[in-house]
Amino acid sequence: MCASVKYNIRGPALIPRMKTKHRIYYITLFSIVLLGLIATGMFQFWPHSIESSNDWNVEKRSIRDVPVVRLPADSPIPERGDLSCRMHTCFDVYRCGFNPKNKIKVYIYALKKYVDDFGVSVSNAISREYNELLMAISDSDYYTDDINRACLFVPSIDVLNQNTLRIKETAQALAQLSRWDRGTNHLLFNMLPGGPPDYNTALDVPRDRALLAGGGFSTWTYRQGYDVSIPVYSPLSAEVDLPEKGPGPRQYFLLSSQVGLHPEYREDLEALQVKHGESVLVLDKCTNLSEGVLSVRKRCHKHQVFDYPQVLQEATFCVVLRGARLGQAVLSDVLQAGCVPVVIADSYILPFSEVLDWKRASVVVPEEKMSDVYSILQSIPQRQIEEMQRQARWFWEAYFQSIKAIALATLQIINDRIYPYAAISYEEWNDPPAVKWGSVSNPLFLPLIPPQSQGFTAIVLTYDRVESLFRVITEVSKVPSLSKLLVVWNNQNKNPPEDSLWPKIRVPLKVVRTAENKLSNRFFPYDEIETEAVLAIDDDIIMLTSDELQFGYEVWREFPDRLVGYPGRLHLWDHEMNKWKYESEWTNEVSMVLTGAAFYHKYFNYLYTYKMPGDIKNWVDAHMNCEDIAMNFLVANVTGKAVIKVTPRKKFKCPECTAIDGLSLDQTHMVERSECINKFASVFGTMPLKVVEHRADPVLYKDDFPEKLKSFPNIGSL
Amino acid sequence: MQSWRRRKSLWLALSASWLLLVLLGGFSLLRLALPPRPQPGASQGWPRWLDAELLQSFSQPGELPEDAVSPPQAPHGGSCNWEACFDTSKCRGDGLKVFVYPAVGPISETHRRILASIEGSRFYTFSPAGACLLLLLSLDAQTGECSSMPLQWNRGRNHLVLRLRPAPCPRTFQLGQAMVAEASPTVDSFRPGFDVALPFLPEAHPLRGGAPGQLRQHSPQPGVALLALEEERGGWRTADTGSSACPWDGRCEQDPGPGQTQRQETLPNATFCLISGHRPEAASRFLQALQAGCIPVLLSPRWELPFSEVIDWTKAAIVADERLPLQVLAALQEMSPARVLALRQQTQFLWDAYFSSVEKVIHTTLEVIQDRIFGTSAHPSLLWNSPPGALLALSTFSTSPQDFPFYYLQQGSRPEGRFSALIWVGPPGQPPLKLIQAVAGSQHCAQILVLWSNERPLPSRWPETAVPLTVIDGHRKVSDRFYPYSTIRTDAILSLDARSSLSTSEVDFAFLVWQSFPERMVGFLTSSHFWDEAHGGWGYTAERTNEFSMVLTTAAFYHRYYHTLFTHSLPKALRTVADEAPTCVDVLMNFIVAAVTKLPPIKVPYGKQRQEAAPLAPGVPGPRPKPPAPAPDCINQIAAAFGHMPLLSSRLRLDPVLFKDPVSVQRKKYRSLEKP
User: Which residues form the Exostosin GT47 domain (chain A) (predicted)?
Assistant: First the structure.
C-alpha cells in the first residue's frame, strides 16, 4: 500500500515529463545494460561447471571413453602368487614410513580399458560395486593422489568376479601398472573367486606378491596376517530396507533359504524338517512364479511363496551352506535380518575374521555334523541366542551393509597391521554401541595391593595461611607411611617462607609454585609425585590423627582404584525440584568423600588435568568451588565404583573457621554445591556416583578388646 | 533546467552500469582465455562417472552355478585343519577327556610330575578308549622316551603331541594328523586353529603355582627407563632413548643397566622390553618381560605368540615392524599413560593366569582344545582376556560374562537384589528355627534351603516362613555344602551353619555390602593365616587380631559361582581333604576365592555377646576358652596343592556409616547392630 503510493508520486513524475523519443531510447539502453549485467552475474556464479568441463569434458567423463591400452600377447605375466607371503617378507613397509598420523596412504590407478592384440576387451566394464569401492577409498582419509607418497596401491582393474575375467590378460594388465614391482603393496579386491569345475577359493589371476582381499578364502589359500577375508557383498541389501527386528524367539527355529544347494545337503536339510516339523523351514527356488515377479526376491516351500529376504526375519537361525564357493552372499542377507548364521562350510575363513569375533554372532558347524545341527543349536541358552542376534545385526550394520563399509574395514585392518601401536581394539571392532556405552573399563583393573613400603605423597594446597600450613606439615609428617610432602604454593603475590623457617621433618619436602591461583592446581600430576598413593590435604586440616591417616592409607592399599576419604557426602534426587541435591551430614549413606583429606591413585591427577569431560575443569577454576565433587564424579565414572569413607569423622572442624560458619553461609554453600552436582551430571550425561551404606573401620574398632593391642587405637570420632 | 539535471543523473547511472559490465565481463573472458591450472593440494580423487548409473553389478542373480558343489576337500599334502583332522564325535558328554601315554623307560622328574599333574586334573581319563584326546608328552631328548610310536596312534588322529621345548627329538615317526603343541612354532609351520602355540619355558620353570608377577604398582615408576634391550647372555640392559638417533642396533650402550654384568637371568626394569623376532630363543625373553610387567615390544616375530588363538596379545604387547625403528621408538615415547597403564596390567594378568607354571600352561592348552570342541559353549573372548581368566571362569557355568561376579562392572550389569540362604544342619541335628526366622525376616531373602546332613530323621514340620523353604536330604559329606544345587536360583548365597546365630539387621547390612563386592566373600567371623617359623609351615588362628585373611563359611555371603568352581575345578584330592577334616572346608573355600580375586575377603560387624554365648562352629572360638587348634596341617596340604599361598590379609571392617556414632539412635538404619 505504502509502496504503491510512493510509486504514484515518484515514478510518473520522472518518465512522463521527458520527450517521447528520448524516453524509448533510454529505456532500450537501460534494458541492454541490465541484461548484460545479469548475463555477467550468471557467468560469475557458475564458474565451476565451466572450469571443470575443461578438465573432464562431458564426453570424457563417461566410462566408455577412458584411455585404451593395448596388451601385447607376450607381455609379462606375474608369478602365480606366493603362499608364504607375510607382511614382513612381501610387504614394503618403507613406503608407509612417512606418515605421522599412523594412517596408510592409498593410491588408485586411473581407469583404463585393456584390449588384446585383436582389439578385444580383456574384461567387462568396471562393475557398479567396484566403482563404489574405489569411490569410497577416494573419499576416505586414506586416499592420496600422489603416487610417490602412497603406501598401498589399488588397481582400477575390476577383479571382483573372476567369471568376467580373461585370466591371463588380466594378469598382464596388472603387470604393466606403473608401480607394480611384483605386486608389492598392491591390493586386489575379489568376492567371487575360482571358476568351474573345481572353484578355487582364491582368485586365480596370477598376482605375485599382491595382497588379496578375498571373499571365500579357505584355510588352504588364506595367508594369515597377509590377506584379508572380506564378505561377498549382497546387492540386495541396497534394494531392500529391512528394519531392525529386536532379538527374541521367532516363528521358525531354523531356516534354509539358499537355492542351488547340493542335493546331498538338501536331503540332509529335508530330513531335519521331517524330524522337527514346523520349527524348521527349508526353502527353494520357486518354479511356478507368474511373469514379472523377480525370482531372486521369492522363495518357496512346496506351494507356499515367501518374500526374500523378509522371510529371514522370521527365523532364529539361518543356514549358510557352502555352494560351489565357500563365500556366500546369503551370509550378508542373514545378518541383515538379525538371524544367527549357522555356517556349514568346512575350512571357510569368515569375513574379517582377523578382527571380528564370529563366536559371538554365528554358529559354525562341521559339515559332517550337519545332521546334529538342530540339537547343537538347541543347547544354546536363550540369552546367548539373543546376544548373537543383536551381534549379527551389528556386524551387518558396521561391516557388511555397503561396499564402502567393506572397503574401509579392509583398509583399517591393513592399517592396524602396519601401525600396530595405534590399532583399533577388540572391543572397538566387536562391541555394539549399546555395549560400549553401558560398560565401564576400569583403568586400574588389575587386582593388586601395593606394598606398604611404597608409602604416599601428601600434597598440601596452600595460599597464605602459613601458620596453619606448618601445623599440618608437622602433623602429617608423623604418619609412618608418608614418603614425601609436596606443598603447592598457590599465591603468586607472595613468596613462600624461607627454607630455614619450614618445619624440619623426616621426609623430603618440596614446594611447587603455581602460575595462577587455581583450584585445579591441587590435582595436577606433578613430576615430584613418585608414589602411586596421593594424599590431598588442605592447609587447615589439623584434626586428623596420625592413626587415622595411616589407617586411611592402609585402606587405600586395599582399594587403590577408589577415592578414600574421611567425611562422606551424599547426592539425593529432589522430587519437588526435579534435580539433584547435595546432602552433608547425618545420613546413613555416602556417595562422595571430601578431598580436604583423601587418598587416591596419582593416575586420577592425570585424568583430572587432561581428560576431564566438557568444561568442568575451567568451570571449577572460575567458580573456585566443587573441585572435590568433580574428582568424585571423575573417579566414579571411570571405575564404576563407590568411594570408601574411613572412620566415623563427619566434618573437618577447624577452630579458625568457626566464626564464619554461620547458618546463612552454610545454606548458600549447600545451594552452590547442589548446582555443581547438577552441572556435572549434565556434562557427564549420567549420574556416575554410587551410593553405599558402609564405611571402613579398623578390624577391632570399638570392640571389647584391650586398646593397647589395637593397631589403630586413636581414631577420632567427629 | 530540471530535466537537464535529470538527464545528467541518468547518463551517470548508465555509464556506471557500463563500467561494471566491462569489468565483470572482462574478468570472465580473461579466465576463459587462460587454461585453468590444477590447484595444488586439491586432490582429484576417483571421478564421478556420468554413466555410473548404467554400470552392471559384479554378480548377476542366478549367475551362480547350481549343483556344482565339489566334494569336501581332502587335506592338502599332509596339512590339516580342525574339521578335517579331528574327530569330535568321541568328545560327547562331559567335555574333553584326555588320556596320557605312560612313559616308557626311565623318565625325568619333571616328566613324572607333569604326568601326575594331568592325572590329577579334571580332564584325565585312564582309558584310551574313552578319551577324546590322546596326549603324547615329548619332553626331553636325553631320556629317550620319544622314539617309539604309541599303540593307539591311528595316523595321529585326535592326538596332541606336547613339546614344551622346541624339537628335542628327531622325528622318528610321521606326525600325520596329530596336533602339535610346541614352544614358539615358526609362523610358516604353524597351522592356525589346529596346532597350539606354547610359550618357551625356561628349564627351571616351576611346575605348579609359580612366582607371581613382579609388578608392584599399576603405573610405571617415575624415572624408570623407557626401554630395555635383551642381551646375548640372558640379561637385559636399559637403553638410553633420549637421543632420537639411537635405535636398537647396539650403538647406544653408554648406559649399561644393572643386568649387564650378571650371568643369571634377571628381570628387566623398564616400561617396554624390546624383543627380537628372529630367534625362537628370544621367546623365553618374552616370558621374562611378561613376568616383570615390562611391556614386550616384538619386532616382526617369526614365531607364533603363545595361545594366540585365544589371547588377544594387542592388549598386552606391541608387535611392531623391525623395519621402522624410528617410528616405533616415537610411538613408544608418545604412548598415552592410559595405554601404558592398561598394557602393563594386562601383562601381569596374563602371566599369572596362563604362564607362571608348567601346570597352567598345560591346562591352558587343554582348555583351548576343549573350547574348540565346545563350539558355541566355549569361553567368550572376554573371559580369556580379563581377570581372572579362562582357567578360573568356567564356561560350563555360563557363556555370558554378565553371569560371573567379576565382570559385572565391565558388562554394565549387577547381581540380583536377593539372596538364598543355605543352612547346613550337621550333627546333632536340631532344626535351626530361630535362625530361619531371622534370615527369612530379611527383605532381601528369596528362599531358604536346608541341607539336612546328619543321622537323625528329617523333622516333618518346619516353621512357617514368608519365603519358600526347601529341604535337601541325604548327603553326608562336608564338601556337599558347596555343591551347585540347581534349586539355588539367586546369584548371592548366604551360607550358614545350623548353630550360627544372626539377626535380621546383620543379614541385611552384610548383603548390601556384598552387592558392592560381589566377587568377594563377605563374612562375620574371621581367622587369619601366618607363617610358622618354628614348624616351617603355614598355620592359622581364629584369635581376634588386627587383621584377617579368611572369613568363616558358617556365616558368609558369596556368589553362587564359587559352588561351581569348588565342585568342578578343584582336584578331587583336595575335596577329600575337606571331607576328612571338616574345619578345612573353610580354608579351602577361602583359598579358591582368594586365588580368583587376588583380594582379601570382607568382614562386617557381628554382635559380640552372642558370639561368646554360642560359638558359630566347632573349633571357632569366642575370646576364651581357647579352642583346640584345628587340624593344623590342612592349610599346608591345600597350599601345596595350589602351589602358592593365595590368601591376603585385610586390616579393615566395613561398618554402617553411622555405626557407634554419637548421633541419635533414631537416625541410624542399623540400630540393632550396636546394642550392647
Answer: 101-380
The amino acid occupying position A37 is: L
Q: Which residues of B are catalytic?
A: 586
Is A418 in the same domain as A374? no
Judged against a pLDDT cut of 70, whether residue B28 lies above it is answered with no
| Interstrand relation of A211-214 and A252-256 (parallel, antiparallel or unpaired) | unpaired
Q: Is residue B619 part of a domain?
A: no
A259: left (phi over 0), alpha (psi -120 to 50) or beta: beta
- Given the DSSP bridges, would you call strands A280-282 and A298-301 parallel, antiparallel or unpaired? unpaired
- Average pLDDT score over residue span B215-236: 80
Q: What is the pLDDT of residue A144?
A: 92
Residue in A357, A364, A322, A325 with CA at minimum distance from that of residue A341: A364
Chain-chain contact of A128 with B58 (C-beta, under 8 angstroms): yes
Q: Are B222 and B188 in the same domain? A: no
Q: Is residue A216 part of a domain?
A: yes
Asked if B119 and B143 touch (Cβ cutoff 8 Å), the reply is no
pLDDT over 90 (residue A285): no
DSSP B72: P
Other beta carbons within 10 angstroms of residue B436's beta carbon come to 22
ipTM value for the complex: 0.86
Residue numbers of the domain that contains A516 = 451-649+662-694
How far apart, in whole angstroms, are the C-alpha atoms of residue B321 and residue A337? 41
Kindly report the backbone phi and psi dihedral angles of residue A638, in degrees, each rounded to the nearest multiple of 5, phi listed first.
-85, -25
Q: Residues near B601 by Cβ (< 8 Å), separated by ≥ 6?
A: B520, B521, B522, B523, B526, B548, B549, B550, B551, B556, B590, B593, B594, B650
**Within 10 A of A250 (CB to CB), how many other CB atoms are there?**
19
Sign, CA torsion A555/A558/A564/A568: negative
Same domain, A279 and A334: yes
- Which of A324, A376, A711 has the CB atom closest to B64's CB atom? A324
Same structural domain, B348 and B428: no
Same domain, A542 and A667: yes
Q: Among B316, B332, B356, where does a domain finish?
A: B356
Comparing alpha-carbon positions, the chain B residue that sits nearest to A440 is B410
CA pair distance B394, B389, nearest whole angstrom = 9
Count the helix, strand and coil residues of chain B and give each as a percent rounded to the nearest 5. Answer: 35, 15, 50
Q: What angle do CA A556, A561, A563 make, to 5 degrees?
A: 60
Q: Report the pLDDT value the prediction gives residue A439, as an integer from 0 to 100.
A: 84
Comparing alpha-carbon positions, the chain A residue that sits nearest to B319 is A420
On whether residue B653 sits in a domain, the answer given is no
Beta bridge partners of A113: A68
Q: What is the rounded radius of gyration, in angstroms, for the C-alpha atoms of chain A?
A: 37
- Closest-CA residue to B593 (of B631, B544, B636, B642): B642
pLDDT given at position A47: 45
Residue B365 and residue B354: Cα distance in Å, rounded?
A: 9
Percent of chain A with pLDDT over 70: 90
By DSSP bridging, strand A568-574 and strand A579-583 are antiparallel
Using DSSP's 3-state secondary structure scheme, residue B346 falls into helix
d(CA B197, CA B184): 6
A298 found inside a domain:
yes
Q: What angle do CA A220, A226, A232 make, to 5 degrees?
A: 70
- pTM of the full structure: 0.87
The total number of structural domains in chain A stands at: 3
All residues of chain B having their beta carbon less than 8 Å from the beta carbon of residue A341 are none
Tell me if the bond preceding B388 is cis, omega within 30° of 0.
Answer: yes
Selected residues 65-94 of chain B with any CB under 8 Å from a CB in chain A: 65-70, 72-73, 76, 79, 81, 83-84, 88
Assess whether the previous peptide bond of B625 is cis (omega < 30° from 0).
yes
B153 and B230, same domain (yes or no)? no
* Contact yes or no for A443 and B513 at CB 8 A: no
Place of cell 532364529: A316
Q: Both A245 and A203 in a single domain? A: no
Contact A383 B400 (CB under 8 A): yes
**Is the CA virtual torsion A168, A173, A175, A180 positive or negative?**
negative
Cβ of B187 and A51 within 8 Å?
no
